[in-house]
Design a protein that fits this description.
Layout lengths: L2 H13 L1 E3 L1 H14 L3 E8 L2 E8 L5 H18 L18 E2 L6 E6 L4 E2 L13 H15 L16 H15 L2 H6 L2 H14 L5 E3 L8 E3 L4 E3 L6 E3 L1 H10 L5 H14 L10 H15 L3 H10 L5
Antiparallel strand pairs: 1-2, 2-3, 3-5, 4-5, 6-8, 7-10, 8-9
Helix pairs in contact: 4-8, 4-9, 5-7, 5-10, 8-9, 8-10, 10-11
Length: 307
């Protein structure tokens, strides 16, 4: 047993958190193997079963802020009586704490029975259908309608659509492979985004911010969204483009998703809403995480409108 494992176990004992040694071992091996900042395991606290999300020690301050943001979002959402039950809002008793005995920070939320829509690392989803996509879109629309007076993300996430998007583009330009740079004209994309956000009349609304298959739980009857750590006020079409990107390898589901969006938004224009711009960003992020030649063809096709 290494030093970090001992620290985690001691922390659980002091906080009186019940857990499975096997589940802890599996979760620990997963985060070490994939270099993840959070350890997530089923647990029991104060006779209540749930999911514990623990920030490992010695992580960047950024990750603590995202966990605090997620906790705040859960608390706000769980307090909205009329909020669509299809979205997971967390428990009013969600905990985010730092004890005197350790610098470990965590949240504890309800356990959702269901299956993740896909793998968090390659964005591919194979369990969603037309009905579930419609539920997700409805959930995101309902989420975006939350009164801004009630929804105030953590200070760290109070950024404009333009600031956030330019940051994403600059990070992509810095981190992307040569193949992506040969396809994507980052200078033109940055110029487009500057003009777009200057003219855009799309209001900032609460958005999920990290709508990947691993954050969509489908239990057939309902579809839940989890992991609100990147939630902020931005363009709703950022989330819709992220959902669309989940189907990058499934043209049939892309068409279904697109038709649903056209039905929900009158005169839905992919470029005027920024949808195509956000889609390119999402596809590049997917490729950087898991490079695939077929995905390069998709990115090449989706960037044709810039020419």
């Amino acid at each position: 047993m290494d030093k970090l494992t001992k620290e985690i176990i001691n922390f659980f004992d002091k906080e009186k958190i019940e857990y499975s040694a096997r589940k802890l071992s599996e979760a620990y091996n997963y985060v070490i193997r994939n270099n993840r900042p959070f350890l997530t395991i089923p647990a029991k606290l104060k006779n209540r079963e749930g999911i514990l999300k623990l920030l490992l020690p010695n992580q960047q301050e950024h990750f603590k802020k995202t966990l605090l943001n997620e906790n705040k979002s859960y608390k706000i959402l769980s307090g909205l009586v009329n909020f669509n039950p299809k979205i997971y809002a967390g428990s009013p008793e969600s905990i985010c704490t730092s004890t005197k005995t350790s610098d470990l920070t965590y949240i504890f939320r309800e356990k959702i029975i269901g299956k993740a829509a896909g793998n968090a690392f390659d964005y591919k989803t194979n369990s969603l259908n037309k009905k579930s996509v419609e539920k997700i879109v409805n959930t995101l629309i309902k989420f975006s309608e939350i009164d801004q007076g009630n929804f105030k993300p953590a200070e760290y996430f109070k950024k404009s659509q333009k600031t956030w998007s330019l940051k994403i583009l600059k990070n992509l330009e810095k981190d992307s492979s040569l193949k992506i740079k040969q396809i994507m004209d980052f200078e033109r994309l940055i110029k487009f985004s500057t003009i777009f956000f200057h003219k855009s009349k799309i209001k900032d609304v609460p958005i999920h911010g990290d709508l990947i298959p691993g954050n969509i739980i489908d239990n057939k009857d309902k579809v839940f969204l989890i992991d609100f750590e990147k939630t902020y006020s931005g363009s709703p079409f950022y989330d819709f483009a992220s959902l669309y990107a989940c189907f990058w390898n499934d043209s049939k589901m892309q068409n279904i998703c697109y038709e649903i969006l056209k039905r929900k938004f009158n005169n839905f224009d992919r470029q005027k809403t920024g949808f195509d711009f956000y889609l390119i960003c999402h596809l590049a992020i997917i490729y950087n995480k898991k490079p695939k030649e077929k995905l390069l063809d998709v990115i090449r096709k989706e960037t044709e409108w810039l020419n």
